Amino acid sequence: MDVQLKILRYNPEKDTQPYFQDFTVKNVSNDWRLLDVLQEIKWQQDGTLTYRYSCAHGICGSDGMKVNGKNRLACSLLLKDINTKKTIVVEPLPSLPIIKDLVVDMTSFFSKYQVVKPYLINNTPPPQNGERLQSNEDAEKLFESAKCILCACCTTSCPSTWTNENYLGPAAMLKAYRFVYDTRDDAADERLDILDTPDGIWRCHTIFNCIEACPKEINITWHLSQLKKRISSREM
Ligand code: SF4
Ligand code: FES
């Protein structure tokens, strides 16, 4: 089959504003991924088409983009899961500055991630065997949140992010959960203080866009609700 695409193009060195360009890719099959289609365009039609990818297997999180209005990973999206009878519209992730075509500047996304201190904080010396152990039950509480690959699909799909560029956003707060609920970590209160601020957890209005966008099917909203409960039940 053949597929039609409309891809947002923008080269800041020569374009005054972004515009859509049409492409047709012939002889594709249903089991191609969107990334394969983009590669075909780049290799056979227009070498200037610019997008970011690395692993091509849903691990690195670098090829988030908006496809037919929803944030997706190009390497994990099969053509059979898109309506290929209609033109496929491909745009960069929303609300981040475009560097070129489908590549966005992730600086603000990663700055917010840093704000929640995304690392284990424990100032006591490790036990003699060198490992800080935890029970399977305690580890299981972290597994889902630890699946995050930092693709930014959730944060950039959130209307609260669109209206407030300082909002920490779901990905950063999910990372906070991952350490707040880690029995080996000593900085839960410090992180909860960071979330309990005007640009923090209370700007999550349970809209669920993040869950729909997440390629790892993480129930982000549930994790944020646990943080809200924990903050609300703290003694002042
Ligand atoms: Fe991507 Fe999901 Fe992590 Fe958000 S929570 S950054 S959508 S993997
Ligand atoms: Fe690594 Fe898609 S290229 S997640």
Distinct small molecules bound, one entry per kind: iron/sulfur cluster, FE2/S2 (inorganic) cluster
Structural class: alpha+beta
Order of helices and strands: EEHEEEEEHHHHHHH
Q: Count of helical segments?
A: 8
Which architecture name of the largest domain does CATH use?
Orthogonal Bundle
Mean pLDDT: 97
Give Rg in angstroms: 20 Å
Query: What share of residues is helical?
Result: 25-40%
Q: Numbering strands along the chain, what is their spatial order in the largest sheet?
A: 2-1-5-3-4
CATH class of the largest domain: Mainly Alpha
Distance from N terminus to C terminus (CA atoms, Å) equals: 63 Å
Low-confidence stretches: none
Shape: elongated
- Number of domains in the coordinates? 2
Largest sheet: 5 strands, mixed
Q: Give the oligomer, counting copies of the same chain as homo and different chains as hetero.
A: single chain
What is the count of β-strands?
Answer: 7
What can you see in these coordinates?
The chain has 236 residues and is an alpha+beta fold. The chain folds into two domains: 102 residues, Ubiquitin-like (UB roll) (Roll), CATH 3.10.20.30; 126 residues, Fumarate Reductase Iron-sulfur Protein, Chain B, domain 2, CATH 1.10.1060.10. The chain is 30% helix and 13% strand. It has eight helices and seven strands. The strands form two sheets. It has a five-stranded mixed sheet with strand order 2-1-5-3-4, with helices on one face. The chain has a two-stranded antiparallel sheet with strand order 6-7. Helix 5 runs antiparallel to helix 6 and helix 5 crosses helix 8. The longest helix is centred in the C-terminal third of the chain and has 13 residues. It is elongated. The protein starts with a strand and ends with a helix. The mean pLDDT is 97. The structure holds iron/sulfur cluster and FE2/S2 (inorganic) cluster.
